[in-house]
Amino acid sequence: MTPIDARNLSCPGPVLAAKAFIEQNDPNRITIMVDNEAARQNVERFLASQGYDMQIEQSDDGWTITGIRKSGATFQEEKIPVREHGSATMVLISSDRLGRGDDDLGKKLMASFIKTLEEMGADLWRLVFVNSGVRLTIDGSAVLPDLQKYEAAGIRLLVCGTCLTHFDLMDRKQVGQTTNMLDIVTAMQLAEKVIVI
């Protein structure tokens, strides 16, 4: 089988290429080539969600990911879990500071906001970090312990891989799942409420 060449595709191109191939062909085996760490993580996570075991080979120009379908696995769209209490609220955080004006004040306000999110209780379903918001998920972040506590409590944290790559922070991420725009848009569709900060 000819591999899908998803090198030089911007997010979420590699995942969309894998998704389209699986939807059209329902293959037991799929091979896709990617050229950056964010794409590798995103494609691996997507293939795993579709019931594939992975074999990964690294070369000078990236990674070749081969997915081999587990027995009985089929294509699965993400669905929101049935909730007895609370609404599924997604909070999208697009900056490492809250508001405009004084940057130091903005960072203090963001830290306070992150700590206070626990007051949402069962409503808090996803935290999504994009643009400079990804800086909140790295080593040295003042809110890292709070985010780790949310993740341990079962709240899914999605961290934009393109943004981590842009700021050269991929190796410093300490919490959350490296994600892509397809996952972010899907989370928006599944959420009952989206709050953008």
Task: Outline the secondary-structure elements.
Elements: E1 4-5, H1 13-25, E2 29-34, H2 37-49, E3 52-59, E4 62-69, E5 89-93, H3 103-116, E6 124-129, H4 144-152, E7 156-160, H5 161-166, E8 177-179, H6 181-190, E9 193-196
Helix pairs in contact: 1-2
Tell me what you see in this structure:
This protein has helices at 13-25, 37-49, 103-116, 144-152, 161-166, 181-190, and strands at 4-5, 29-34, 52-59, 62-69, 89-93, 124-129, 156-160, 177-179, 193-196. The radius of gyration is 18 Å and the shape is globular. The longest helix is centred in the middle third of the chain and has 14 residues, at 103-116. Helix 1 (13-25) runs parallel beside helix 2 (37-49). It is built from six helices and nine strands. The chain has two domains: 4-69, TusA-like domain (Translation Initiation Factor IF3, 2-Layer Sandwich); 89-196, DsrEFH-like (Hypothetical Protein Ychn, Chain: A, 3-Layer(aba) Sandwich).
Keywords:
Translation Initiation Factor IF3, alpha/beta, 4-stranded mixed sheet, Hypothetical Protein Ychn, Chain: A, 6 helices, 197 residues, 33% helix, 24% strand
In short:
This protein is an alpha/beta fold and 197 residues long.
The count of strands amounts to 9
Strand content: 15-25%
Question: What's the gyration radius in Å?
Answer: 18 Å
Q: Low-confidence runs (pLDDT<50, min 5 residues)?
A: none
Counted by DSSP, the helix tally is: 6
Kindly give the count of domains.
2
Order of helices and strands: EHEHEEEHEHEHEHE
CATH architecture of the largest domain: 3-Layer(aba) Sandwich
CATH topology value of the largest domain: Hypothetical Protein Ychn, Chain: A
